[in-house]
Every structure is written in structure tokens, then in C-alpha cells.
Amino acid sequence: ASQCCRNRKPHEEERRVRANDREYNEKFQYASNCIMTSKYNIVTFLPVNLFEQFQEVANTYFLFLLILQLIPQISSLSWFTTIVPLALVLSITAVKDATDDYFRHKSDNQVNNRQSQVLIRGLLQNEKWMNVRVGDIIKLENKQFVAADLLLLSSSEPHGLCYIETAELDGETNMKVRQSVSVTNELADQNNLASFDGEVVCEPPNNKLDRFCGTLYWRDKKYTLTNQNMLLRGCVLRNTETCYGLVIFAGPDTKLMQNSGSTKFKRTSIDRLMNTLVLWIFGFLVCMGVILAVGNAVWEREVGSLFQSYLPWDPSVDNFLFSAFLSFWSYVIILNTVVPISLYVSVEVIRLGHSYFINWDQEMFCSQCNTAAEARTTTLNEELGQVEYIFSDKTGTLTQNIMTFNKCSINGQTYGEGPDPLDFTPFNPLADPDFCFYDDTLLESVKVGDAHTHKFFRLLSLCHTVMSEEKSEGELVYKAQSPDEGALVTAARNFGFVFRSRTPGTITTTEMGRPVTYTLLAILDFNNIRKRMSVIVRDPEGRICLYCKGADTVLLERLHPCEQELMNVTSDHLHEYAADGLRTLALAYRDLSEDEWEAWSESYCCADKATSCREDRLAAAYEHIEQDMMLLGATAIEDKLQEGVPETIAVLSLANIKIWVLTGDKQETAVNIGYSCKMLTDDMPEVFIISGNTVHSVRQELRRARERMIELSRTREGGKEEGIEGWKQLQCPPPPPSNLMDNISGEFALVINGHSLAHALEADMETEFVSTACACKAVICCRVTPLQKAQVVELIKKHKKAVTLAIGDGANDVSMIKSAHIGVGISGQEGIQAVLASDYSFSQFRFLQRLLLVHGRWSYLRMCRFLCYFFYKNFAFTMVHFWFGFFCGFSAQTVYDQYFITLYNIVYTSLPVLAMGIFDQDVPDQRSLEYPKLYEPGQLNLLFNKREFFICIAQGIYTSVVLFFVPCAVLSDATQSTGEPLADYQTFAVTTATALVIVVSVQIALDTGFWTVINHVFVWGSLGSYFSIMLALHSQTLFLIFPNQFHFVGSAQSTLLQPVVWLTIALATTICIVPVLAFRFLKVDLKPQLSDTVRYTQLVRQKKHGRLGARGGSRRSGYAFAHQEGFGELITSGKNMRLSSLALASFASRHSSGWIDTLRRKKPTHVQTPPRGSVPLEGSGCCIQQPPPALCSYGNQTE
């Protein structure tokens, strides 16, 4: 443990590592290679865990109560009434924490005890990973995990190459290549490596996976080190027999561990409300204590003083004020159950159950990729039922991220339109049989030897970072960094330009059946700023050529001036391709003379070897050579929509969820992907395009959009124009009042460019942008950066009190996913970074509607019903003590037996409410999907809020009044069959307790909307357990064993044998329950909710709601170049080696249920009120006759 926890020097500014010199390296106190992700050990578990648990206010509060109960002068309850539930809560949490930490320990031990071959004093010795030190040289073999962050020294592969898989780091499963520095690659055997004493000076530990900057000093020379020389911990060695590496970072300093920081803790709105309510309840408890303490003071002064000889004060009490002070604390102890200790544990159990339901849902299981939905957190389930804004990535989230070469433009001629797919086999035996293209004129152009066509496909076969693996002769497998790259290289392969293999300095192709080897002089790598990549190659004849491909926005402006006419034609083709939903790239080349190459190569080498500002110098060198290029043409790749995306977006829109797509693609793409996904429709009054380049122009465009929205909205409402003319005439008008924009009823859409968005996100304009965008049904932001995605989410969270959800599949979506209230990761083609950062994950976007409309809605409904009942039952239980105080001289005497007080919350009433919280539902899952409007109560927070809380409290107080005063009134004059009076304390206590248990059991039976076997067992079993335990506790057997503990001997038996007691219980139950039933009957009759109507239609099997087919729409979208930096340099240095037909569109008729629309803050009701006795049925466009109250009083269902 001491080795694991050994700390390095604080504020490490640079790292110095000398190979094979542990004594030198230990001076710097670098961390060892032992990792420890666990929190506890055997000694620290109990104190640390208890300390953490008592950080919770509720636990600290009950510990305080326990201490009070140990003071005899103020405690009228035994200590175990508090310590039993407190110990139970602490124990459950401790067991959970211990289990989690046990698995962390197990994982840590498994990793720390892995074996590694370390070179020590010239000999290879097996060492545990935890014993590896900085400066050690390690031998790795094929398929082994990399033990620490290593500088690759040598490899068994030619040119010092080694192949790795980085899935554990970034989720990418394609192989990557690393290469050793050439001078160390010559140290091929362990004897030479044992004498290696080079020193590495590099950056301190950090979490940047794609960056490393260092210098190797050896034999009076220095060598630049980059990330392509590093093997990071967590990688796996592939297709490489052996390699050696020098440990640079170990254990917690490795980039893998540096990236495993704690995730931001997210809390739900119900959590925040619950904490507020608990504080209110505590305040209410103090007020009740003060009232009863004042009553005690008055009673002791006016009445109690007359009984001093019979009821003297305790020796420590010398006046009525001190008696009142003690009475206050006594009542705080007695009434503490209004703040239920089991509340938080019950909530966590319910959430855990909901998470398992998500994990087990077969409807969200993707058989194609064998991936189930996963709830990666248990704290946000009910928030899934309250989402108002969804922020979605496009590529890989809405689309499949599986690319196919669809069309191309070569020398002004477009190709790709044809009736039948081409058969490439007779022409090219190396063709990929799965490749499809539909224009034989392009193949003919290749066959006749058209120079432009050949150069076009030659560029595609050379300008890339794809790795090729030839399993057998002619059987090529391409390992592409991005699907775009693979599609382009495969297209070149089928048209006769086959990429075969590569080394750090060569690329071998087969061109029209003839093998050709090009010398690879340089790769000008891709990054998100350049948005292009280039290669410089020398052909066998000695000619040097630069080939470039990239986004048209950056490549066309670097063409030779003589290319203007061809550029205009190609630009038209690019717009056509984007309108067809295709990802586009422009291709160009430049012939270089030997002198030009030599001059540029010298500047490039200087930039490459620079130790400071290396990236900027390289970018300047790239920019210099990528000028005056000749245009070849453009490519168009199709990325098809995922299954069910349009249907899912339509359904979510009907649930009043606003969907924003945040994409890096260009504007044409953004508009057309919107139509393709049915986010944008021809029925929309207007789609606003914001594309200004200055702050002023963006402000003007937003203002005009708002004016137009209000104008169209007023026109639809009958031409009301008041309140607009004044601010329209101002020269620099402020944004319209929020209430004007909140009342917009039209379905508008907004498309905004990345550069316009940058201005819109500025502090002085963000309010205008939010008011404009939030009035739209759909918003599409194009050309946005990952940082802008997160900023947009934060903006909505800041200005709108709404729950946000972000969904994406790539590393560029991680910041957005972490910023939103709920993050959803798609396990797709871009690795698992998004999944690792998410709260929920699945494999298809279409599963989102089930996650929200079924699991989210049910979780919200269940949690709200649970909380309402929980607070109700506890107030009904506790307030009886308050009323009793006025009849017992405010002496803090309890009404119930102390064992009943202890067991009420943890035995008698805990399981039924848990069953309701886990299993309850108002309508089946299919109905939740068919009627998206059922989702709106969660968005409006209608089912549990401060108003509902006070209603529950009022019902609980009313129940306590009935449970106290009805038995008190009846039993005060009642007699037993023997003529003896029944008005004794123990009979009253048993009667009241029994009535309480029966009333709350009947109440939860009424509240339960979906009965399962478990509900029946828990409800009626808890009621049965009450009678069994009570009879046992009041038995003579226990009294004889513990006479000082069980004072109610025989009370239960004698009380429950009296008919008047049962009549009293029945009367109290009736008085408590009948008003609830009457209220619910009237509510369903006068103000039915949509769920009531849906349940009724299900019960009577009416199938009147016909489905209208969806209007077909043009399939349009557009995309941009997607790639990643780092692979070019790696190569050149040798480092690379259900609802069919949109049935739910019928909901577009927009008949609204009035009970929701009257509460909708942003939209007033603009629909006709159905006639009395009928209810508008969402999705049908018709009214059904309202059911008789007797048939749908609460619509309970039985499984």
C-alpha cells in the first residue's frame, strides 16, 4: 500500500527519465505502477464510510435524535426506536458501498498482479505490474497489454513498427501503428538495451491522449519524440512478435489513469425538491414542538401545579419553563417520523429497480450488434420522464455511419445515375464484391484510359491513412480510421486502382492490373482546422505530385486561378450532392518540380524537428505547399439514416419535446438532414436560416425571425397585431417581451451556422437567441465545434427551467453529453467514448422514444406516487401524537406502543409502497407510445410538486384527526361485554394503530394502478404481518421473559375481541377513505386526464382511433469531411503500419386535452372545447363518449 500511495513531487514542470537507472529516477519520487481505484481497506472502511454517510443531513439528524433519546429526562421513547431504523439504513448503504469497493479491489489486484518482463541488470525477469518503475525497460509480446506509458525503443517488425489496438483508451477497434526512433531501433537485443543509458526529457503527466512532446538525449545527440513513439497503458500489442519500451509514466501518472477522473454528479429536480421539502418538514416539526412546549408550560403552571403531591416534577425540574424546555425536546423525538429516515433508501431501491427494467428491456436490445440498453446510473431515471429538449449529434446517431461511394464529379462530368449496379468482376479480379455503383459510363471512362479519371482514382488510392491486410492472394481487408476513408479507397479499388500495402516510405498499388510502387515523401496530415489532408509522392518515373482531398470550403479557395470555370461546375455538383443527402469532398493535385520539393522539404524538416510551436510551424509549411492546385473533381458518399429515425423524431415531437440537431456539417446538409429526419416538414409555416457573419447581421436576422413568427402566429389567431408595431418601428429594437414569444403557436424551425452561432452565444445576444430558438419546434446548428455543442446545452439550462438530454456516439459529443441533465451514448462506429461518458446507452436512436415515453414516464409516475403516499402515511402516523398532546397534559406521552413506532416504517408499510414505486403503471407501454401527449405531465411537473406535497400533507393530517378523535369519542363511553369501560390507554393505542394500518393499506390499494403478484403479497402480507407481530408482542410469553420491555401484555387479544372496536375501526376507515373515493370519482367525471381516457378505451376494447399514413417527403441531407489528426505523420515516419409508415403522424391533428393546455406555460389553448360528456382522444382527431365514473374511477389494472 505504501508503494501504491507514494506521491511524486508536487508541481512537476518536466519529467526526466534515465534508462536502466532506478537510483537516478527515484530521486524524483515518481509514482510507482501500482494503481488503486478503491476507496477503503479493512481498517479504514468503518470510520470512513460512516463519516461519508453522516455527510447526509438526514443521517446526521437521526444521529442527533438518538443522542437525545439517551437523555432520560427528555426521552419518552426507548433508544431502539431510532437506532434500529438508523442502523438498518446505514447497514444497507454500507453493504452496497463495501460490495462496490470489493469489486474495485478485485479489479485493482487483478491488474496490479499481471506479469511483465522487465530488463534488470541485463536479464529479463518476471515482475508484477505494481513493481514496475519509471526508467525500466519492458519486453512486450503479441496480444499483451501495455503495462505503463512506454517510449517504444525497438520492435521485431521492419522499420521499428509495432501495431496496437487502443479500444480501452478511445474505443476504436481498428489497428494503429507506432514506430520507434530509428537510432534506438538498432538496439534489437536485450544485451544492447541493457547498456542503453539515454535520457528522456518530456512534458509532465497529463490527460491528452493524442499529444506527447519530449526529447531523447543519447550519445551527445538529441531526437524529437512525439505521440507516435509512445505505447500507452491500456493498449494491446497486435500483429507484432515482440517489442521493447522504456517506462516514462507509471501508475496514476499514465494517460489512462489521468483520464479516469470522477464524473460530474447529477441530481434530479425531484431530488432537489425533496431536500427542500425535508427542510420544510423539519421546520414544521420545530413549530409543533414549540406549540406543545408552550402548552406544557401553560398546563404545568395552571393545572399541573395542583397535582404536585400526586405528580411531582422530576428532581432536575424546578419550574414550568424548564419543564416546557424538556417537553420541546421530547416532542422533537416523538414527532421525528415526519422526516422519514427510510425515505432516501427507499428512493434508491426504487431507482435501482427501474434501472434493471431498462437493462432487461428486450424491445431495446439490438440483435444485429448484440447490444442491450444499459442504465449506467441509477439516479436519473425519473428525470427521463421530464425531458423538454433533446440535443442530438447527426453522424452515427441519426445516421448509420456506414458509408457507401454513391456519386462523383470528374473534370466537370457527374457520375452515379444508372438503372443497374455494375459487375466489376470481369474487369477487376481484385474488386470488392460488396461494392455497388450505378453508372457504367464511369467504368467505360476508366477502361478507355481517360487521364482525368485515372488521376482521380489514383488520388483516392494514395491520399489516405488506410492500413491494408492481405489475408490471402487478392483478399484485401482495409483497416480505415474513418468509414469515409474506407469507402473512398474501396471505390478506387473497384475501378482498377487497388491499394495493396504500405511501408513508412512507400505505397504499393495495382493500377489497371499493373503493380506500381510510389515513394511516399510526406503526408500533410488532417486536423479539424485544416479540414484537408495531402500526400506528396514520387512515381516510378521520378515525377513528384501532391494529392489533396478535403472540404470544399477550404480546398476550392486554394486552386489555381485558371480553374475558375471547372470550379463553378464542380460547385454546382457539390450542392446537388448535398441536396441528395451525401457527404462531399473535393479533390485536387499539384505537380511539383524537384527544386520546389527540395526547398519545401527543408522547411518541413525544420518545422518537424522544432521543440516549440511545432504544430504551428507544420501548419505554416503545409499551407505554403497546398496552393495553386488543379481541381480533379468531387466525391459523394451516402450515410443512410438509422432505422426508425423519422418515426422516433415524429413521436418525440408530439410529446412536446423540442429536438435540436448539433452537427459539424454545412448548411445545405443541415437543412436537408432535417427534411430527411422529418424534423423539418413542408407543413411548417417557415424555416428560418441564420447565416450572418457579424454580430449586427446575426442580431438583425434573429429580430426578423421573431417578427415573422409573431406575425404568422397572430395571423393564424385572427390577425391580432396589438403590441407589435411599437417595437418594430424602433431602429435598434430590443427582443420582444418573453410573454410574446412564449405565446407563439406556430411550428417553426431554425437553422443557424457555426460562425453565426458564435456571435449568438455572446453574452449580450444569448437572450435573443434563446427566445427565438425556443419558440421553434426544431433547431439545427451546423458547422459547430464540440465546445459549441456544450455551450448550447449550457445556454438552455441557464435560461430555461427545463430538463435537457444530449445524445451522441463520438468523442466530439462527450462535452455535450456531460453538460446535459441526462447524457445518452450510442454504441456505434465511432468507439465508446460517448458511452463511457453517458448516463444511459444503447445502439439505435429509435430506442430513445421507448427510453423516454415508456421507462422515463413510468419512472416519473412511480416516483411521484411513491413520494405522495410516503409523506401521507408518515403524517397520518405522526400527527396523532400531536393531537394526543392536548389530552395528556403535554407530557410527551406516546399514543402507540414503542414497538409499533419502530416497526411501522420498516415492516408494516415499507414493502407495499416499494412495490408500487417499482411496478406501478397507469397505461401499458404500447399505449404510452401511441399517445405521446401522456408524457406532458412530467414536463410540467404536475404529479409531484409543492402543491401536490401540501395536498398529501393535508390528507395525512385529516387522516390523523379521524384516527385520533373517532376512537377517542367512541371508546370514551364504550364498555366491554362485561360492563367494564373500554376507555383505557392501551385499548385506545391498539385501536388507533390497527385503524392506521388498515387505512394506509386501503389507501395504497387505491393508489396502485397496476397489480402484480408482488403487490398483492406485499400489501396483504404487510397487513397480516401487523396482526401476527402485534399478537406476538402482546403475548404473555414475551412479557414473562422481558417484563420490563413488553408492557402491553394481553392488550391486543382483549381489544380485538370487542365488536365496538371493529366498528370503530370500520367507521374511521370509512371516514378516511370515502372522501378520497368521492374526489376521484368527481375528478374523472368533471376533469378527466388523458390517461383516464386511454385506460377506459383499453377496458372497453374500443378501437375507434384510426391511423393516418404519413406524408412522404424528399430524402435530403448533406455532410462534411470527417477525419482525425495524427495518422499522416504516423505513416511518413514509419509509425503507420414500428410504427409503420409513420402511423403516429395522425397525432399531427393536434387535438389537445384541456387539462394540460391550461397549464402549458408556453402555448395558450387554441382548440375547440369538446361537448360536455366527451373527451378529446389524442391521436384520433375525434371525441369519445366519456365513461361512467363507476367504470373508470381509477382504472386499476391487473397483470
Oligomeric state of this protein: single chain
Based on CA inertia axes, which overall geometry fits?
elongated
Give the CA-CA distance, first to last residue: 54 Å
> Helices and strands: which structural class?
alpha+beta
Overall average residue pLDDT: 82
| Strand composition percent | 15-25%
As residue ranges, the low-confidence spans are: 1-8, 719-738, 1103-1124, 1132-1199
Summarize the SSE layout with pairings:
Layout lengths: L14 E4 L3 H5 L18 H9 L3 H13 L10 H33 L2 E6 L2 E6 L8 E5 L7 E7 L5 E5 L1 H4 L5 E4 L2 H4 L4 H5 L4 E4 L11 E5 L2 E5 L4 E2 L4 E3 L3 E8 L5 H4 L10 H34 L17 H15 L8 H18 L13 E2 L11 E6 L6 E12 L2 E3 L24 H8 L3 H12 L4 E6 L2 E5 L3 H12 L2 E6 L3 E6 L2 E11 L7 E7 L5 E7 L1 H4 L8 H16 L2 E11 L1 H15 L5 H12 L4 E12 L3 H10 L3 E5 L4 H10 L10 E4 L4 H23 L7 H4 L9 H5 L6 E4 L1 H7 L5 H8 L4 E4 L4 H14 L3 E6 L5 H6 L2 E5 L6 H5 L2 E3 L4 H39 L12 H11 L1 H10 L5 H6 L5 H4 L6 H28 L11 H23 L2 E2 L1 H21 L2 H6 L9 H6 L2 H28 L3 H10 L18 E2 L7 H6 L21 H4 L16 E4 L4 E4 L3 H4 ...
InterPro entries: ATPase_P-typ_cyto_dom_N, ATPase_P-typ_P_site, ATPase_P-typ_TM_dom_sf, ATPase_P-typ_transduc_dom_A_sf, HAD-like_sf, HAD_sf, P-type_ATPase_IV, P-type_ATPase_N
Catalytic activity: ATP + H2O + phospholipidSide 1 = ADP + phosphate + phospholipidSide 2
Membrane topology: Multi-pass membrane protein
